[in-house]
Amino acid sequence: MMTRPGAGVVTIIHDPDDDPEITRAALAAHDPRRGQIVVHPTVGTNSAAMLAADILTALGCHIDEDTDRAQHLGTPEAMFAAVAAWLAADGIDLVVVVRAHRLTQASLRWLAVLAHAAQLRIVAIWHDRRPPDWAQAFGSPGGIFRETCDLDAALAGAQMRPTLPPTLSADGLPALAAMPVSGLARFRAEAHQTLTPPQFAAVDLHYRYGLQRACVWLTTQGRCQPILEALGADRSQAAPNVTTSSRSATACLGRARGRQPRVPAPRPDQVGLQAFLTLLSGSSLTPSATVARLRGAQAGLLLHGVLLQVPAELARACGPGLTGPCVTEQLAGTIRQRLAHPRLAAALAIAAIAGRPAASITQRPIPLPPGHHGNLIEIATGGSRAVYSVPGPAQPLIDAAAHYCRLRPRDEPHLLAGVSAAQVQRAAEAVGVVLPSSTDCDHRDPWHAMSAAWIVGDPVHRTGTTTPRAQAKVAAQ
Fold this sequence. Notes:
- By secondary structure, this protein is α/β, with parallel strands linked by helices.
- It has 20 helices and 10 strands.
- The strands form 3 sheets. Strands 2-3-4-1-5 form a 5-stranded parallel sheet. Strands 6-10-7 form a 3-stranded antiparallel sheet. A two-stranded antiparallel sheet has the order 8-9.
């Protein structure tokens, strides 16, 4: 039996007798969740662009006669760059092409290029006489071609991709207008007093989720060290306005005494704070869920000696989780289906994540994420830049755009190069996504960029027996 070929190899299944069992087995191998797809080339395919369209269709992208014109995928180079980008972002390892003998040499050459450039396993089913030389038939240098009759061996090695965790339900949550308007100190009590028992239970579920995620963020990712450093940090940031209600909320925290550094002190790592807040809100299905999670996060951070300030009127704020739709797996799938161009798909996803109008994400360049995976993106807002965490369902959309940019080095070197606000707005309409208007949000900073964290005392919720100040004394000895 043939051993499993490596990446970058084209395996030819030579079946001159056109065995229907081989065809059925090949078609049954289509399973994107296991990193493998099957491409059935359009009958009469005589162009490489048509083959690229067939591969995009196998990936779940909707391709019609207007796609290449409307989304600027009219050349084989652009089409195959989109193909390679989606294959890489989706973690596709194996592409099976049935009836490959009907393809033109130009199309076969692109298959070989795709195998090498994207480090894929290509399995081509060949129902015709064997050519004198496979490298010549594919118009590509030799060394990457293998021939076999063992389809099972060629298909071996697929593994199920991990699934995303389920999204916390928004069932039972009240409308945003009915949510309590109190700050941290009275939010939960007011919710209990003013909401029905089912509504309060739904709000409390998200409140507790926010509290738990805040504790995890501070205690499992080395966050105590920034807290220590903050006690001697620059105090140019305006101190928080401590009202009576916030005094009662912070009364249980330890105070700086003697020669210890004074508090409150600004907490460093604003980028990390924004990333945490947008990760928390990115999976909120409704604005009400976002508000409840943020109040819970405030409570969780306060248990660790950190006072989180957010805009006072959250219900009227603009930004992630409040003025944009949640990018769920279903919405990400619809974007993928309707928008074959990786940059356009990413642009719509970013507008939804940020809760911003189309114009605000296209008028200034968005830098390419570092490496091949963009867990964070930066968007210019006014005179500053805001950082956003990319939720799991949207990750392939951003990754595909980043891959596409790297495959198109002649384009402008930023994530959404060439994408206009009008294109994003038309894409939103095609997908059924409602983005905020420019009059609503374009001239306002997002709520998470206006948020700040302050060190106000020692934690009362600890995972160990050592306090930050005790650790500081030990480090100083």
